[in-house]
Amino acid sequence: MKPLALVLAVGFSLCAADNSWIPVTGVVVDPVSQSLRPIQGLPGASLLGPALNLPFAVNRAALLGKNAAIAIDAPSDANGAGQAWLITGLLRGDLASNSLNGAIAGADRIATNDAGSVAVLYSKSSSQLQFVSGLPGSASVSDPISIPGTVGAIAVSDDGGWALIGVTDSGAGAVYRVGPATNNQLLPVTTLGDPSAIALRSGQDAVIADHATDEVFLVRDVIGAPQRTPLADGSSGVSGPAALLVLPDQSILIANAGSQTIGRVDPVTLQMGTIPISGVPDRFEKLLQPGVYALNQPGGAPLLLLDASSDLNVVFVPQER
Fold it and tell me: Are 198 and 164 in contact (CB under 8 A)?
């Protein structure tokens, strides 16, 4: 395996050891090697490149704009709890990592706003949620918020002042709004069986999936007087909804882990079509290339990418040869 020389990002590209420029679609966590690896090339003609040189094993991570990420390390023993790290210079050649002092340990989930300026960490072991603002250059860690139950989905508002969280507790589920804008109080939005995915639409509306009933619905005005409208269910093809994505044309994509399909709900007719894929989609993870998303993690199965920049195309990324 050739060492990866990260020199300068120009249009999401990096310089290889032979001084040739390689376009980079994104950076993803490889759970097998517990590392961050770049997707070298463009969708349909890409390889999963060698691991970035970090001083810790990576458990999970989320990109913050073009050249930074927030990551949780993998504990060295079963009793350890993962530390949060801020990684900068991803594609600039000045890769650096610093522990995020004051961050909750053992975060199981990371969610960010679209700008990557605010992240929300959630730890199931401590039943705590935490906002980290000022990313990536002036990180500020807020006081942890105690959450009863288990958080299965998080969506962060554009300004980072609040997040919607899907919580299950004692067999019942609900979605709450919480954060600095609510004085860290849990404000109920709607109830459901098992909230597995949340995506914000137009700032104050949210699309929410219920894994228990294979339903997806729209909740309007989540910060005022929420109104809930059904969008799709099992009869239209929803099966084990694991993630949601709202496209610029307001189409709604559903990652159906149960049927291994991507569902698309038309914003006008509300009819849903499905695209079969060779794998289990469990996320819509935003990458560096606009309109391109990771649908799963590499490792046991090939990494799948969704290119939604024009038509919806799903391609796989082979390992580096």
Answer: yes
- Which structure tokens are listed for 313? 């195309």
**Could you give the CA distance from residue 22 to residue 20 in angstroms, rounded to a whole number?**
6
Helices and strands counted in the chain (H then E): 0, 29
- Who's near 48: CB < 8 A, 6+ residues apart? 28, 30, 37, 38, 39, 40, 298, 303, 317, 318, 319, 320
Query: What is the residue type of 171?
Result: G
Q: Are 106 and 94 in contact (CB under 8 A)?
A: no
The tokens describing 165, both together, are 């969280």
Enter the pTM of the model: 0.91
Instruction: State the Cα–Cα distance between residues 129 and 253, nearest whole angstrom.
Output: 27
SS3 category, 320: coil
* Residues 6+ away with beta carbon under 8 Å from 243: 197, 209, 254, 255, 281, 282, 283, 284
Token pair in block for residue 173:
């589920």
In eight-state DSSP terms, residue 319 is B
Alpha carbon of 133 to those of 12, 113, 156, 162, 178: distances in Å? Answer: 25, 10, 12, 11, 15
* Rounded-to-integer distance, Cα 166 and Cα 189, Å: 10
Q: Quick one: 20 exposed, middle or buried, by C-beta within 10 A (0-12, 13-18, 19+)?
A: exposed
What is the sign, positive or negative, of the torsion defined by CA atoms of 117, 253, 275, 168?
positive
User: Are 260 and 276 in contact, with CB atoms under 8 Å apart?
Assistant: yes
Average pLDDT, the chain: 90
pLDDT greater than 90 at residue 197: yes
Which is it for the CA torsion 300, 152, 246, 285, positive or negative?
Answer: negative
pLDDT in tens, 111-170: 999 999 999 999 999 999 999 999 999 999 999 999 999 999 999 999 999 999 999 998
Distance of CA 299 to the CA centre of its chain: 18
